[in-house]
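Hi Y.,

Following your request, here is the sequence exactly as I used it, all 107 residues.
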Amino acid sequence: MKNLLKLIAVAVLATSAYAADKETTLTGEGKCAKCALHKADKCQNVVEVKEKGSDKTTIYYLTGEVSQKFHKDNLCSDSKKVTVTGKISEKDGKKEIEVSKIEAAKS
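Below is the corresponding structure, written out as tokens. Let me know if you'd prefer a different format.
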């Protein structure tokens, strides 16, 4: 019985590690955390994603060079619908995405 429990624990940990490495694509309202939301001391992209079947939104802070390059000409002075692909994590109670791709969402 102990061996079975150990095997299950190892399987759960392996699945969790795999899920953290998987890229996810989200579409939502891209904004500047400083300029639009007043939630940061310096400019940083975020995407607000509405949960399906609810009015609740989740804010994801976008990280990485791809996100930074997109910021100045696209989200610092104006919010727009974007599609973001990257790896999701959580840091200091905030959801983050290490961005591998970001673009204006197709209507």
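Residues 13-18 have pLDDT under 50 and may be disordered.

Thanks again,
Q.
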